[in-house]
What does this fold into?
Amino acid sequence: MDRIILHVDLDSFYASLEELRNKDVMGKPLVVCVYSGRSEDSGVVSTANYKARKLGIKSGMPIAFAKRIAKEKNVVFLPVDMEYYRTVSDRIMELLEGEAEVMEQVSVDEAYLDVTEKTRGRWVKAEEIAGNIKKKISDREGVTCSVGAGPNKLIAKMASKHRKPDGLTVVKEKDVKSFLENMPILGLHGIGPKTAKVLEELGVETAGELASFDLPMLAEKFGENTARLLRGRASGIDDSPVEPRERQQISRIGTLKEDTGDIEEIFNKIKELAEDLKGKIGKERVYFRTVSIIAVDTNLKTHLKSETIAETDDIEAALKVARKLLEGFPDENPETLLRRVGIRVSNLVYKKEQTTLKDF
Ligand code: TTP
Ligand code: MG
It folds into this structure.
């Protein structure tokens, strides 16, 4: 039976989320920036939507440089809002968790899913699951993603990158060779510019060429182990398992019935969310140390207030902290009405696995 792994990567993630909540930027090139605060335009581009990428703007570029490219082109620049992105990311990751036997979150917008058992190794079934995932994310969160399916993590990752945005690429076990054949070595996941340069000096330009390249000659340049690893990668070999990672935080966020500054109304919503959070805390078997309230105002600015307490798994303790944080909010943010609120626990400590009979 073929092993089947999916890799899900959200498209221009931060930029897509900003487009969602700033309807006036819809359709325009958009750049999300990490401002360093030193001078007006110091800092780097976090990400850009596909319209802005067409102009040549990309992640990691200095903001000032991006602004020069953007000149007179009606490009929108916005600062990052990590709290907002993390909250949506949490929800999407939970959705993904429900779609696989094992899920490994790799970053805020990326995860591997092992669906071997669920599909019983059938690729048509994998394609169907991938399509469902895309639809669910789009229906519930309004953003697109690209999904790759392959016989291992390496191929799945390259497959999701193959067609972006909004792509779905299935590379069956038997098609790995042709998928890699003409791929430029820089397109091989895990091969950086330095390695690529040495390989090019050896006359190796594609993964296909690398896969069959003389091992002793490769070993001379990179050492025996790396040489084998490189050839293995170029042949699409990867045995690494999909491993669940411990999550950093658990949160719930919801929209208030109407925009309000009324503490009681807001707290009622938090209590409702906490009920759901409680179930998740139990299921994950964690203690938490930090409690936060997340408040999104009518200008869509996200406020986060946190407090750290003694380790506990008691939701009532979390609510007590949330109440206190909430009561301080109006004084610190006068005349601010809230649209959405949330509660988060973080600084998680996992309870020990049940290892002895006595525990049961
Ligand atoms: P990526 O998945 O690499 O990029 P992306 O989602 O913006 O675009 P793509 O459609 O190509 O997947 O990274 C996810 C988020 O991480 C991205 O939206 C912003 C952030 N990020 C940075 O802050 N700096 C960086 O250099 C990169 C690469 C990403
Ligand atoms: Mg992405």
